[in-house]
Amino acid sequence: MALKLGSLPPHLCSSPTKAKNPNVSFFWGRSLVPPLADVSCSTASLGKSYARLSITCTAQTVSTSISQGTPVRPTSILVVGATGTLGRQVVRRALDEGYDVRCLVRPRPAPADFLRDWGAVVVNADLGKPETIPATLIGIHTVVDCATGRPEEPIRKVDWEGKVALIQCAKAMGIQKYVFYSIHNCDKHPEVPLMEIKYCTEKFLQDSGLNYNIIRLCGFMQGLIGQYAVPILEEKSVWGTDAPTRIAYMDTQDIARLTFMAMRNEKTNNKVMEFAGPRAWTTQEVITLCERLAGQDANVTTVPVSVLRFTRQLTRFFQWTNDVADRLAFTEVLSSDTVFSVPMTETYNLLGVDQKDIVTLEKYLQDYFTNILKKLKDLKAQSKQMDIFI
Amino acid sequence: MQFGRVLTSGGIGIGSSASSANTSLVLFKNCVMTSYQYGPNLTSPSLSLKRPSCLPANGENKEQEETSPSEPKPKSKSRSRSGRRGTKGKKKDTDIVPEVEAEKNVPVPIPVQSSQPANLLNLEDVNPVGLGRKSRQIFDDVWRKFSGLGQISRTPTIPANLEDPIFIRGPMCDFTVPEAQDTTVLVVGATSRIGRIVIRKLMLRGYNVKALVRKDDPEVLDMLPRSVRVVVGDVGDLPTLREAVRGCNKIIYCATARTTITGDLNRVDNQGVSNVAMVFQDYYNELAQLRAGKSSKSKMLLAKFKTRKSLNEWEVRKGNYFSDSSFALQYDEGIDAEFDFNDEGEAVFSGFVSTRGGYVELSKRLSLPLGSTLDRYDGLLLSVGGNGRSYILILETGPLADTTQSKKYYSRFNTKLGFCRIRVPFSSFRPIKPDDPPLDPFLVHTLTIRFEPKRQKPGEIIEDRQQDPRNFKLIMEFIKALPTGQETDFILVSCTGSAIEPTRREQVLKAKRSGEDALRRSGLGYTIVRPGPLQEEPGGQRALIFDQGNRITQSISCADVADICVKALHDSTARNKSFDVCYEYVAEQGQELYQLVAHLPDKANNYLTPALSVLEKNT
């Protein structure tokens, strides 16, 4: 392979400078080239300043002869973060549409066998170790990046350093399309580390010169199952906030479907698109809906946003609780009374989607509860049958 | 527990600290509650699995309070109990009863807890290690829930639900097919362009998949999903094929010859299809025999010509189309026909018709076994030999007593030199009087085979008596009724031939057509898909055209062909059909002849059924 690894910026190998000052949460100190366009649009909020650094992708497509020599098949895609909630749906959709799917998966003790069962090729690599990335990109036409660090691990490692390395690699190896999932309104909330990182990555990707699709998402319906539906069914306490934020949850299967439509659509090249569900819901509304569908009342513990916020403030003072603070950072978004939703009509028209085909939250949860309650009934019927033999 | 929302007045105000004090109370309350529910899969949404396991956990914790709060003991206990759960036993049943009660009225455990404190306070309770561990668990749990609130959309515990069937292959997945779990599909040509996608699609939908591959090289196996059962074999090798079809319900044949050398073509496209179909039919027959011939797959015997006696009910008639007998007599050179059992044990219907407008026919009133009617059958299967004439099969319906009301339906069939099996579907019968209603197989009472010298293939040498088209010889072996199946058994991916280089096209098509014919004759429910030139691109993007009659011009993606194959598995309209399929022709901008009305294939619309239902059956 003619790729020169040396063409990757040298800082990839250097150990990243950790944020030493908890107040300045975004100091990566790795700007290679003097910041170009949008540098350090610092936002002041809560008396703290966040410096937005811009990093320019310096990797060039090394030799055009690679792409000329053996043209890659347009059906070969690499899915990063394939085991995640969204990633697995993307993989499934891609396989069903006839793509050859390669999944970049971190080496782990319990391998993601379900991906292999579906017919995807699983390659082991770690975004945290940039030297493992290039090999996975050989022969790939499109990279779909649905990776996000796990809540329990430091955000910067995967979401920023890993992504920078991946994008630079993709650029260097002549990847022809890069699909990146971002968060809705990420440009408006620089105080939330994950959103800030997503926004920086967007900028970085846009500057890299890759042919990209950026898709901003609001919320996944799948996340609600674990958060509300299951606890309600099990009569456990449900924790909710009293935040008035409305989120337009979307089914990840729909997201995956629309993504592939967008990916193949020439008109969406180098565009930032926003995907949102049909309706925006507050947590209270979601809980009420779950209660109605489950036919039982939830044991709701409402935690005021202010408490979360206070905890965040508290945890930020210590180095060791910094990750915790980062995780709680969405509190700022929750308390800001925003509506996480976008009108989708234009996107539907652009992609040629019928709005009727997009799953609503009512339908989604109803399907879930119908299935689960049926299963529970079966279980109970079974245990009753056993009683006969006493 | 409602707190006023503390506004963002900047920093920590009195209000927020007050509310935090309140919340600590809340937290504590939850600590108590959650401590009893702590378990490794707390937030995993696999409810179906969890329900039985979390209920005993309640009881177990009760027990734990009564005896000792130290950790490892009850854990191991619960494990052993859940292990016993799988086995039948009285102990288990008694276990279940209190659980159900506890579930019905939740408050019951609480008084039990409060009545126990005297026992609770023993030495082990103040064991610092145990307490520390416990409090750590409680804190972790609460903390996880608490910090989960700060998230917008991320699933709190991704690794936990990694194995969760609901999320991986759950009831809410677009791809699930209800029948998939009980269906085993053999994919022949698993590594072909279409085969690979077919396998992935089948796996996504939860089918059991067997793959026939020629070599079990690591690179071949890497192409296939792990849980596919790989059978090493070849379509030319009958023993391996027998092994491969064992336990299968359906076959998708997407193997194709790698070269256009005649030998290769013959081996894979012709003989291969024939072999697989034969072996599969054998397997079905074996199953049918196990069920004493009462399988829905078994054909019904209408007539068998093995003994002289079996010829008795057959009646030979001579007739003439011209009612004006004088005209007929003018050209009468004689008609002769006989139906006889010869010395070789063959029932032969032979003779000649030299009279203009004359015909001879062989007729029998059908006597069906009690309880069976022809409407549950799809058509007739004749096993005949002879000198390759064409005949007319006539079915007569109507009241038996009154022959004037009877209606006749005809279908023409060609025989080949030598023995062959001919499938005459009921749908191919047309009424002799054009205004009669279409054939209802239920009413059929008489079957007639007619020979007439019209429309025969012209004989090359008239002098040779054998070649004279007015002579005929039909050796009858049996007539059976083909059962109507709901679904197709065998899906064959053939081709339209438009992508093959012109010099070899004829040979390729010939091999493919003979393979198709072999499949049609096999008696299996079949679907033959003839795609246009294949493109390696994602499927589901463009509208498809389904057609019969070799008229298609466009290409099609492999993924769409694979999708058609998978959809056709359970589609009754796909049974016993051959069809061509390609992309819809999209005109250049400004050159459109008509408006696009077809829909893109999508989860909401099943495009296959409406498309196929208009196509001709038994083709």
TrEMBL record, chain A:
Classification via CDD domains: SDR_a5 (cd05243)
All copies of domain NmrA-like, residue ranges: 76-325
SUPFAM superfamilies named in the record: NAD(P)-binding Rossmann-fold domains (SSF51735)
A Pfam family hit: NmrA
Annotated keywords: Photosynthesis, Photosystem II, Plastid
Plastid as UniProt keyword: yes
Record InterPro entries: HCF244-like, NAD(P)-bd_dom_sf, NmrA-like
One Gene Ontology cellular component annotation held by this UniProt entry: photosystem II
GO biological process, alphabetically ordered: photosynthesis
Subcellular location: Plastid
Signal peptide, first to last residue: none
Source domain of life: Eukaryota
Chief localisation class: plastid
Protein name: NmrA-like family
Organism: Carex littledalei
TrEMBL record, chain B:
SUPFAM superfamilies per the UniProt record, alphabetical: Galactose-binding domain-like, NAD(P)-binding Rossmann-fold domains
Ranges annotated as biased composition (Basic residues): 75-91
Domain of life, source organism: Eukaryota
Region entry Disordered, spans: 43-100
Ranges in coiled-coil conformation: none
Matches recorded under Pfam families: CIA30, NAD_binding_10
Domain NADH:ubiquinone oxidoreductase intermediate-associated protein: 336-432
Domain NAD(P)-binding span(s) in chain numbering: 189-276, 490-571
Name used for this protein in its record: NAD(P)H-binding
